[in-house]
Amino acid sequence: MAVKALYPGTFDPPTNGHVDLIQRGAKIFDHLTVAILVNPVKNPLFTLEERVEMLKEVAASMGNVSVATFNGLMVEFARRQGCSAVLRGIRAISDYEHEFQTALMNRRLAPEIETVFLQPAGRYSFVSSRMVKEVFSFGGDVSGLVPPNVIKRLRARIKNGT
Question: Active site residue: 56, 91, 107, 157, which one?
Fold first, then answer.
């Protein structure tokens, strides 16, 4: 039986930490769906379509990775996708507290879906999308922290003043 997993997030923008987890998740699971949450509360820098494009570019060489979008409860989307696992990244203890509580709620809502925690490679353990956007907006170098296709889009976005 094929094991399908969901890797949910906002991915605004995708970082090399995200890419690390996607690559490793693709080795663990038969199929990994990178699922971008449509969250009207957040004010993302990139549109949903742009984030889908960036992640598809990142995952293009991985035959068992797809990119999708969802809104509502993540576990309901995971069920509809036929996933039996959810992949979550943990960078620090502060991430663990939030992710642990979320995993317990998800287990209550969908006991058939397991949560799998992975730590990103150490060199990405401090990287967050929020931090990348902030550093880049002040002229800082984020090369090595995000894929080249993301740097290209960040430059275009900042150049256009949005």
Answer: 91
